[in-house]
Design goal:
Elements (H helix, E strand, L loop, with lengths): L2 H11 E3 L3 H11 L4 E4 L7 H18 L3 E4 L3 H11 L9 H5 L13 H14 L9 E4 L5 H12 L4 H12 L8 H11 L4 H11 L11 H24 L4 H22 L5 E4 L2 H4 L15 H9 L3 E15 L8 E5 L7 H8 L4 E4 L12 E4 L14 E4 L1 H4 L2 E8 L19
Helix pairs in contact: 3-6, 7-8, 7-11, 8-10, 9-11, 10-11, 11-12
InterPro entries: Emycin_Estase, Hydrolase/PRTase-associated, UCP036794_erythomycin
Pfam families: Erythro_esteras
Protein name: Protein-L-isoaspartate O-methyltransferase
Length: 427
């Protein structure tokens, strides 16, 4: 690595970030895309959430973006979506709606930063017809049991044949007592899985929202997305026992499929804001993930939609973060140490101890050859093992823009209530 060449390239590309002028410049680059991907370098940093929220508000209010899709479970996010849209029998306020995020790591979405955004979205939607209201949806795969519950609840009000079909499909899962690991071991090692049952059920629910009454269309869509989540979760837990790239790829391919279903629901001219970790929204082909046979949301969307995708990555030099020391452990506010020497974060800090914006379309091709470490903090974090938290990255190919925040602080969880779960695949 030529430090002098990288530093010269950074000096040419980097501009101060945080002013209205810098936000205007970034918005101007992102506003024409159909898919704007907003990353984060951790799941517990306040500024990653607040900056994404400000960008999202402007793209929604000024440029007509229709919904936000996040790295979260469909059922709990749909509860928040119902509140944001002011549906009958929705939660009384955003905090009450966020109570549905009751599985570890609760802080990812049940935090004050999301509470503020939810109230803004509710206010933005209040005078609009249902078809013009901005939505908030979760596109991840982990809600196996919760999605089954929601499907049965919805079908109890619909066609009895579909309800009986769902009950029959879910009987296959009953021996596993709502334990994902138990199901994964049985399905992977002993061939006792439920794949055929959930595929059949999904076929029954697919696109039924297109025939539903307008007042029930989104609930019918929710039933299908829950069925997709059951199918994705079944496949994910069946493969994760092997500890290879297959489970990661199943998860990200599922998120893209869920996203495309939402785009279909919102119409051919719909535009979406996607909130996920950098490891999902930054093109995997520009990292060492490619050599491990891994794909991700950013890569798949770029392959399908090209220039209609605009990916914005995030990073920080130092600060604090919310995370756990093991899966299901009590969440803690941890120190994020200064970035290691010659990482992207340290190089940007060396360029100036201030927030910075890099726009990658400025014609500087030197960075296209530079594979440099880029910090990624998951929900499980050990600051003392810092060197293992860096993903080798060609930053100019991984993102269309990069927001560097020199010093950041932990986000503000709404609750300390935690429950355990199966370890997720986030890096």
């Amino acid at each position: 690595m030529s430090e002098s060449l990288i530093m010269e390239s950074i000096r040419q590309l980097a501009t101060p970030f945080g002013t209205k002028e810098s936000m205007d410049k970034l918005i101007k680059h992102a506003e024409k895309a159909q898919y704007v991907l907003l990353g984060e370098a951790s799941h517990g940093t306040s500024e990653f959430y607040s900056v994404r929220a400000e960008l999202s508000k402007r793209l929604i209010a000024e440029h007509g973006f229709r919904f936000i899709a996040v790295e979260g479970d469909w059922p709990s996010c749909y509860t928040l979506n119902r509140y944001i849209k002011g549906y009958p029998d929705a939660a009384a306020d955003a905090r009450a709606a966020l109570n549905d995020f009751n599985r570890w790591p609760t802080w990812m979405w049940a935090n004050k930063e999301i509470q503020e955004l939810a109230e803004w979205l509710r206010d933005f939607n209040k005078d609009k017809p249902d078809k013009e209201k901005v939505g908030f949806y979760g596109i991840d795969v982990y809600s196996l049991w919760e999605s089954m519950d929601e499907i049965l609840k919805y079908l109890a009000t619909q066609d009895q044949a579909d309800l009986e079909a769902a009950r029959k499909a879910f009987e296959c899962f009953e021996p596993f007592s709502r334990d994902e690991q138990s199901y994964g071991i049985s399905a992977s090692l002993y061939g006792e899985g439920c794949e055929d049952e959930v595929i059949t059920l999904l076929g029954r629910l697919q696109d039924k929202w297109k025939e539903a009454h307008p007042d029930d269309q989104e609930n019918a869509l929710s039933a299908e997305l829950n069925a997709m989540a059951v199918k994705g979760a079944e496949s994910y837990y069946r493969t994760m026992i092997r500890h290879d790239s297959d489970s990661w790829n199943i998860r990200d391919r599922h998120m893209v499929s869920a996203l495309e279903k939402l785009m279909d629901f919102h119409g051919e001219h719909a535009r979406v804001l996607v909130w996920e970790h950098n490891t999902h929204i930054g093109d995997a082909r520009a990292t060492d993930m490619a050599s491990e046979g891994m794909v991700n949301v950013g890569q798949l969307l770029r392959e399908q939609h090209g220039s209609q995708v605009y990916a914005i990555g995030f990073g920080t030099y130092e600060g604090t973060v919310i995370a756990g020391k093991s899966w299901g452990a009590t969440m803690e506010e941890m120190k994020v140490p200064p970035a290691i020497k010659n990482s992207w974060e340290e190089l940007l800090h060396r360029n100036g101890a201030q927030d910075q914006l890099l726009l990658m379309d400025a014609g500087n091709h030197a960075l296209d050859e530079m594979m440099v470490g880029h910090r990624a903090i998951g929900v499980v974090y050990h600051p003392e093992r810092e060197r293992g938290n860096y993903v080798p990255t060609v930053i100019s190919k991984r993102y269309d823009a990069f927001i560097y925040l020199n010093h950041t602080k932990a986000l503000s969880p709404l609750t300390l209530e935690l429950s355990g779960g199966v370890e997720r695949g986030s890096r």
